[in-house]
Amino acid sequence: MLRGMKFLQSAGIIHRDLKPSNILLSANCDLCLADFGLARGVGVNERSSTVSPSPPRGGEPSGGKLTEYVQTRWYRAPELLLGQTAYTSSVDVFSLGCILAELYRRKPLVAGKDYQDQLRLLTQIIGMPSEEELKTFVTSERALQYMRKLRQSSPVLAKAADWNTVLKMTAPDEALDLLTKMLTWSPLNRITVEQALQHPFVRHLSASQDEPVSALQFDYAFEKELGSKEEGKDVLTLKSLMRAEIERFKQEKKAVK
Questions:
Q1: Active site residues
Q2: Interval 83-94: pLDDT, tens
């Protein structure tokens, strides 16, 4: 999953809907990341619909606003739950952390009934964020006020829970350390994909020479054409635009070679 994420980031893509049902395995255990219906490109100039000369590689938010209502709630990063519209591919790293925990636990790590319940349950696992930590990534005063009330009502949740208790089994120390670094409140404190690939838990599975990166940025500008067509023609329009985008991508790839 991390190797796939590395390629997506190099192409300037945030998946935004990583969950177990979107992780596909073949009979010989080849893994594919699937369902890019909610994916979005970063580093794209919103006015001219052209790729920026130096687009962010997952480290900085894109220039335009993105919707926070993405990703199945159980795998949604805190910044999305708290209404942020400027975020990076670190939201996908948080989702991968939830999936890793689920592999051990054999059921979803945080299964909230709504976004408030999701935040409450999250504090029981990774602890309550400090005021200073919240202000590093939350810009909504309403969201800050909600978290302050949650802290006042649950003062005992200041510290993270014991991971072995949460997972209901004893996991390797390296796995628990990686979980801790993936599942953080602030995206600024969250481990990056490149750092995760070098983490002791998965380092033996990483091979930089066998982890291709994209030399090109995928352009999602074709999506802007949808909705401007007559009703009923969107599907045909989408197919036509996607064929054109794929052909453009092939031609640019040849030019790079």
A1: 17
A2: 887 888 899 999
